[in-house]
UniProtKB/TrEMBL annotation:
Residues 58-149 form the hAT-like transposase RNase-H fold domain. Transmembrane segments: none annotated. Residues 162-243 form the HAT C-terminal dimerisation domain. GO terms for molecular function: DNA binding; protein dimerization activity. This is DAYSLEEPER. It comes from Hibiscus trionum (Flower of an hour).
Length: 270
């Protein structure tokens, strides 16, 4: 959704990104830029280079670039963003206008919610004319999934077991550590197929992680060009590094410029 909105200002973002990257690519250019900043008596002496997988860094880059504009009263970061809002809102409405069956089935497979979770939330999420159809679609999809698992494990059709699960009522649990998968596993004798189905559905992650965040543990292990190291090799290098630090009493220092964060360029004072 955000990427869709950013298309409105993609030319501006690319120009600013390329300019900052160009200045950052040479000590000589950094020095000359610092001299220009001094000549125009600009108090701000920092450039920010975005990380393309982190949208907050894109905003920071634009907000910083505005401060070097000759007449920065004519524009602001908020004005850049305002052109994106309409497109993002349209994409957001389209996303929520369709029933996300995976998340809905995941809700039903939580014994604390079951179909009640769907029946309570769907009226707030969808137009009134499609609420009933979406609820029916979720129930039918659950039955279809159940039949697939029955066929997979070569068991006779026992669709009443899904109904038994839904009609048993919701589990009342006041603890913060309740685990739906564990609860269904403990009920495997009663819900043999359903427990297997839940283990697969509830294991699906509903979020993504930027590759930079995955590698943030070791900018000293994997360079910015993503060296072709196997996972075993990376693990070995990190472990060896930790052992060496421990052996020699070296304490790990937190770095302000980890992979995946916006790169800040502090200009030298001429």
């Amino acid at each position: 959704m955000v990427q869709h909105g950013l298309k409105k200002v993609k030319t501006i973002i690319k120009n600013v990104h390329d300019t900052v990257d160009y200045i950052n690519g040479s000590e000589y250019r950094l020095k000359k830029f610092a001299e220009l900043v001094g000549q125009f008596n600009i108090k701000h002496r920092m450039l920010v280079l975005e990380c393309k997988t982190r949208w907050n860094s894109t905003y920071d880059m634009l907000a910083c670039a505005i401060k070097f504009k000759e007449d920065n009263k004519l524009n602001s970061p908020d004005e850049f963003v305002s052109g994106m809002v309409k497109n993002m809102k349209e994409r957001f409405d389209k996303y929520w206008g369709e029933c996300n069956l995976l998340m809905a089935i995941g809700c039903v497979l939580d014994p604390r919610l079951k179909m009640k979770g769907i029946e309570v939330t769907f009226p707030d999420m969808f137009p009134v004319e499609v609420v009933r159809d979406n609820i029916r679609k979720v129930r039918e999809t659950l039955y279809e999934l159940y039949d697939e698992y029955v066929s997979l494990y070569h068991l006779p059709t026992m669709e009443q077991r899904v109904d038994m699960y839904l009609e048993d009522g919701c589990v009342i649990d006041k603890g913060d550590q309740f685990e739906p998968i564990k609860w269904l596993k403990d009920q495997a004798l009663k819900f043999h197929i359903l427990s297997r189905l839940a283990a697969d559905v509830l294991a699906v992650s509903i979020k993504t992680v930027a590759s930079e965040a995955t590698f943030s543990a070791g900018s000293h292990v994997i360079d910015p060009y993503r060296a072709s190291l196997s996972p075993d090799t990376v693990q070995m290098l990190i472990c060896c590094g930790d052992w060496c630090q421990s052996l020699h009493g070296v304490k790990r220092k937190n770095k302000n410029n980890n992979v995946g964060q916006a790169n800040e360029i502090i200009l030298p004072i001429p």
